[in-house]
Amino acid sequence: MDSTFEVLYGAAFLDLCGASMLTMQLPNHLRELGASLTTVGFIGSIYGLVQLISSPLVGGYADRHNKRSLLLLCFAACGVGYFLLGAVSSLWCIILLRIYLGVVKHSLNLIKSALSDLTAGLSSPKQLETQGYYQSACSLAFIISPPVAGYLIQMHHGYFIIGVCVTLIYSLNAVLIWNRLPMDGSSHSTSKLVKSTQSSPKMTKDSKDFTADASQSLTQKSFWSFLTLPDVDRTLLLLLLTGCFFHSFSAMIWRNSSTLLYREQFQLSPPQIGWLISFNGCVQAVAGLLVKYITKLLPRSLYQLLLACALSTFVMLSIGNLSNPSYLYVFMVPLSVAAMLSKISYQSYVNQTIGKGHTAYLIGIMGSINSFSRLSSPIIVGYLMDSYTSAMSLYVAAFSTTLAAMLYFTVEFKVRINKSKDD
Prior knowledge:
Elements: H1 3-23, H2 26-32, H3 37-64, H4 67-87, H5 91-104, H6 107-119, H7 124-152, H8 158-180, H9 188-194, H10 205-214, H11 220-227, H12 234-264, H13 270-297, H14 301-320, H15 328-354, H16 359-387, H17 392-422
């Protein structure tokens, strides 16, 4: 394997280790500072909004300039931001720092974009292998960092200590990129990162589309031009995208409510929360290895999606009525399988239903939908947990997943009607 790939995998691992250590503890830290659950959700939504606005700008700039230099700048800026985030105790300062981090925290998008550049022109198995290594590095970060942060937060000034550790991690990441990715582009792979992607001879039109998708952005013009393509059934497309939104929205609700739920409903300590999140990461890694056997039993993408919706709904309703936190470890297993099935089956089902000729546009649109879900879910979770019970957000997540399943059924029904008309 080219050392450039190894450096980027290592950078992704360190990036997620550092960011997750602090951000996973942020909701509980805000609660200790006296913030309401709605305020916690508002701060999360502010970060999502800034990311949604800044991602296309940073992604477009990175496609035209030196990704290596921009990555170094992101690591340095994040190191400063996370250090200050761990040091301040004012809610207004935290809000300002989350806005600042929303502007500069694009390192993972840049790494994914760089990997896309490096694999442009390579075979499909090689590209899938690259993504597999990248996902493994990310999963490993979520296995290691939560327990470490759970123990550090219990120390005197624990949140500040975590902020210092995160700053050191980002400094190490910057040194790694500086030393292992030389500025002169001495290797073939490194030269692709130094040069503009527009001038790279191996960058085809499709490769550029996927590079843009790595930043999870899609321009409004591209979105509406796709909806008006003559060979696409717009009703079918909108039903699919609506299903995608409710499915993504349910996942984001769980992501934003789980840490608070562990504390508010189950009264778990920070180390217990850390180990539970780490266990979830382990199960997801194992589920990734077992998914191919599940897909052999359910070869159709629709059945995989429906199974994912059924498992998610069952788990959300069960955890919402759970009194013994020990059973949380049991429910992490089907939840992780459902998450993995959703990741691998949705894109396949969309391609089968709409057609493979629009894959890049579809990925971009779904990236925008995921960004909107990431933006709206934190404040909704905060309001629901503040105004009702801690489990209310899980009931909304279960309802959202059920709506997604109903929409998938509607899409399948419409597809069969269209086929019968053609026959």
